[in-house]
């Protein structure tokens, strides 16, 4: 089974601090963490680390950050044959302030330069396609060229490009922000009728499966019997939530290659994401597969 992850790669520099950022204050940084990042990049690395056959379609420059990203991909056994050619590009990078008290993060993203380039869709068969919406034309072309593939949209915030890709995917997994931006409604679990209405509107985007992730409040999904379901998040002490969503989506894509049913796949994705927030960094917090399975067993007993 071949997984293709399509979208953004970036180089992350994470600085952990105590408390919230304040204006007109100097912070003395005693430690910081560097690693690869970006939704598609992190998801691909998780799949590679867990032993899946995975390819990344993304823009990575030939500068110093780009070289580090490519070295990381090799380390995680992610295929680089189909990277988008862009030799003159400055690789995107991010400065991330991680609030250790609550596990929050503030991201300053430097998107780098983009150049138009001709891209030929791989002839290699795709069984699962995961797109974060950052390369909409290529994502849509890949889905069209691989009608047998199961496609997943990682929708973090509402953008027209992400929306176009989401319409063509089998699974739309969106954040609470995306759901609010699209429907104009906030999600409050005590307002069950509104939660049902929001999920139904999200489902109408692709006419298939949809999930709304809620961070520390878990997620909303459609149960096998057609009713609205709520799956709670793992009970963990969060240190840094950077990359938690990427890891969730990567784990979900991996589960599709194992042909796991919806509930089992959401549980293992939830546990993978929950384990990740206990460590600093996005890529560096990808848990081991065996660690996730142990967490799943405890999770099932608790719920």
Automatic annotation (TrEMBL):
Gene3D superfamilies: 3.40.1190.20. GO terms for molecular function: kinase activity. Keywords: Kinase, Transferase. The keyword Translocase does not apply. It comes from the Bacteria. Coiled coil: none annotated. Residues 3-287 form the Carbohydrate kinase PfkB domain. The keyword ATP-binding does not apply. This is Carbohydrate kinase.
């Amino acid at each position: 089974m071949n997984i293709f992850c399509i979208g953004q790669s970036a180089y992350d520099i994470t600085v952990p601090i105590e408390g919230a950022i304040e204006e007109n204050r100097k912070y003395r940084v005693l430690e910081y963490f560097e690693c690869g990042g970006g939704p598609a990049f992190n998801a691909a690395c998780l799949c590679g680390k867990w032993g899946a056959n995975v390819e990344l379609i993304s823009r990575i420059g030939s500068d110093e950050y780009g070289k580090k990203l490519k070295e990381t991909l090799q380390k995680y056994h992610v295929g680089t044959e189909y990277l988008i050619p862009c030799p003159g590009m400055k690789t995107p990078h991010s400065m991330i302030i991680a609030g250790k008290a609550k596990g929050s993060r503030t991201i300053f993203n430097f998107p780098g330069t983009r150049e138009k380039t001709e891209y030929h869709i791989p002839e290699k068969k795709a069984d699962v396609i995961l797109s974060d919406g950052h390369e909409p034309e290529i994502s849509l072309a890949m889905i069209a060229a691989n009608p047998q593939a199961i496609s997943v949209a990682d929708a973090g915030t509402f953008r027209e490009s992400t929306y176009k890709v989401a319409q063509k995917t089998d699974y739309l997994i969106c954040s609470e922000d995306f759901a609010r931006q699209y429907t104009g409604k906030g999600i409050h679990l005590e307002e069950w009728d509104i939660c049902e209405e929001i999920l139904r509107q999200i489902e109408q985007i692709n006419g298939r499966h949809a999930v709304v992730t809620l961070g520390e409040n878990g997620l909303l999904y459609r149960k096998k019997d057609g009713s609205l379901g709520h799956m709670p998040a793992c009970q963990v002490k969060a240190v840094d939530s950077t990359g938690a969503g990427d890891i969730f989506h990567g784990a979900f894509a991996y589960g599709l290659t194992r042909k796991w049913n919806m509930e089992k796949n959401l549980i293992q994705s939830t546990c993978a994401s929950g384990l990740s927030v206990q460590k600093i960094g996005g890529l560096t917090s990808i848990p081991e597969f065996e660690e996730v399975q142990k967490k799943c067993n405890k999770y099932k007993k608790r719920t």
